[in-house]
Write a structure and sequence with these properties.
By secondary structure, this protein is mainly β. Helices cover 3% and strands 62% of the residues. It has one helix spanning 28-31, and strands at residues 2-7, 10-13, 18-26, 34-42, 48-57, 60-65, 73-78, 83-88, 97-105, 108-111, 115-120. Strand 5 and strand 6 form a beta hairpin.
Length: 121
Amino acid sequence: QVQLVESGGGLVQAGGSLRLSCAASGTIYRLNAINTRAWYRQAPGKQRDLVASITPRGPTDYPDYLDSVKGRFTISRDNAKNTVYLQMNSLKPEDTGVYYCYVRSYGDDYWGQGTQVVVSS
């Protein structure tokens, strides 16, 4: 099993920045088998959308982003800490929502509990 704990959410004014963190814990077997890491966002009354993902292919990580966050958000990971980050810059009110960390390991999906981000105008 894999457990995910997010942190870093909060209230910020438009134009500001936040960095979300997601720390993974669990069995070495499962942690070493994590391939896809991602951040999803769920705005009030809306479906959960993929915001950013990072997938390794050999020694290289391939990030992918929702069009509306390209150039503003950056996903990264620290293997030594089993942590994935989401750096969010130039935040907009439409970025408001609950942000969920997601990983996939041996075909199983794991989710964090979510962290709230509110961007005021």
